[in-house]
Amino acid sequence: MSVGNGWDQRDGSPRPNASPWGAPPSGPARQPPAQRSSWSGYFFRNKLSALLFAVICLSVGIRMYQDLSGPDAWSYWKDQYVSPSLTSRLTTVANLDGSGRATPALIVRGAIGPAAASWLRDRIEEAHLKPGDAVVLSSPGGDLGQAIIMGEIIRARGLNTAVGTVDGPSEGHGAVAPSYCARACVLVFAGGNTRFGVEGSKLGVHRFVTTRLADDPVADTQRTAGAVLSYFTKMGVSSSVVEAMSATSNIRWLSAKEAAAMKLITDPVGNS
Question: For domain 89-261, is the CATH number 2.60.120.10?
Answer without folding.
Answer: no
